[in-house]
Each structure stands twice: as structure tokens, then as C-alpha cells.
Write a structure and sequence with these properties.
The chain is α/β, with parallel strands linked by helices. It contains twelve helices and ten strands. The protein has helices at 5-17, 20-27, 31-45, 61-87, 100-110, 112-117, 132-136, 170-176, 200-203, 223-231, 245-250, 279-290, and strands at residues 92-98, 121-127, 142-145, 154-162, 164-168, 188-191, 216-219, 236-240, 254-256, 265-272. Helix 1 packs across helix 4 and helix 2 (20-27) crosses helix 3. It is elongated.
Length: 294
Amino acid sequence: MQVDLNKLRTFYILAGTRNYTACAEKLCLTQSAVSHAIKKLEAELGFDLVDRQNRQFRLTRRGEYLFSRCAGIFDRIEEALDGLAEKENHPVFLTLGAPVEFGSSVFIKGMEPFIRQYPHIHLDFILDASLLTPLLTDEVDLIIDCVPHIHEDLVAVPLLREEYSVVAAPAYIAEHGISTIRDLNRCSLLSFDRELGWWKNFINALTEDAGFGFGGIIRISNVRGIINAALAGIGVGFVPRYTVLKELEKGLLTELFAETEVLNDQINIYLKRRNFEKQVFKDLIGHIKSLKLT
């Protein structure tokens, strides 16, 4: 049986992205061209690869089998090309992902030495709260995230434990007489959500007799907004501690209830399993792990 390798590669990319639009963008083709290539390949093979009876993208049993076999072949080709590019210092393009606050205030700043050491590696950054889908569809090559991701295609590399702090402006603390957790009953809490899911690490660390409550909730959709609102005396914020180190040092914010053992989150590096052993990713992970991230 002979098939067109270009069509086979199109199928491999489509099966990896699980999305016709993403596949078309990756191959610089139109969506109709991708669809046409898959149908031609199916005609050459004599069986369906994509289950078109399902609303969501799904491969047939034979499609899944072919994809698993193609993975080893195209991964080895990609490795060979990467090896040649590395020896010749050919440009390597990687896209890295991270949450907005961590990415902008810590991660990007720490990558300058890596960029200087490896001038042939071009880095782009996507800063977003939702990073799993872009990683699985190869829109990004590596992400740093505190959200746990369990997937058979991914490898997780532990990076650090993320510490949190309850903070407020000194004037706000004095005005509302905050000295105990019970005093939050007359305060506004700054949160991503009205259900206080954002505060769960603090709330879950409290005992039943702590008397936790609040006077109101002000919803703010990102960490920097919460910090600025706390600085302005609008309410009490709950934020990753690394984001307010300067404000705490300058006395612009005060850390409340430091004796409370607030639960921490695990921050991991995530990447595709097929990339884990590649030298460029080993160098990248080694640099990230060497950074002073808090």
C-alpha cells in the first residue's frame, strides 16, 4: 500500500491538534485543503480515519492506530531535523506559556540570560489563564502553571511551591480595626469570583472557630488589579506572595494573619512527552529551574 506522505503528515498534525482550523494554521493551508487531504488519504487507504458521526472531533479506531504509529515516525524525523538545526545553529522557534501575573512579573524577566546564551532560539510568550488546550494542540511548546494537568501526552516537572498572602493597605487596616480573622466581617474581600474560590487556600486553612466572614466581595479579574485595589484602600486581597514583595518591603501593603498556615499550590513545568528528551527543552528547563522565581 502506497500513500502520499504529505497527506499522511496532514493527518498526523490534525490528529495531534484535534482541530481542523488549528491544523490548517500550523500547516499554512486552508481548512478546506486539510479536509480534502484527509478525504483523499482515506480513499487511498480504503477506510475512514475521522469519525464524522460525532459532533466533537474524534478519530476512528483505525485512525487512532495510524496516529500512534505515525507519532514515532514523525517524532524521529523532527528529532533529526532539530539535531541538524542545533549543530548548524539554525533558528529554533518556541512558544512558552504562563499565567498573566507570573509570566509578566517573573518569568519573562528571567529569560534574558537564556536568550543571550542561545541566540538561535527564538522565544515567543503567551500569557493566559487557560494553557492546557494550547499546549495539547501545539500552539505552545511548554507552559508553567499552578493548575494541575494530568494527561497521557504530558510530562510534569516540579518547579516550586507558590505561597499566598492576605494583604491590605495600612490605612485600611487601621480604619477597619483588623487584628483577627473575625475582623474581616466588616471588610470587603477582593476576589476573582463571588464564590471565593480564589480564597480557598486561605479559607481551607482556617479552623471552624476562626469566625471567618466578610462585609462584601469585590470581583477583580486579575492579580495586578487585586493588588492595585488593595493599595488604593478598597479592600483586603489574597495574592501570591511573590507578587507583592516590593509593596510589603516598602510598607505600602501589610501582610495579615502571617501565622496562619495558608495552603500552597504546586507550580509545574508542563510539556509534551515527545519533547521531554530533546536537548533544547532540557536546556530550557534547566534554565527555568535555576531562576530565582520568588
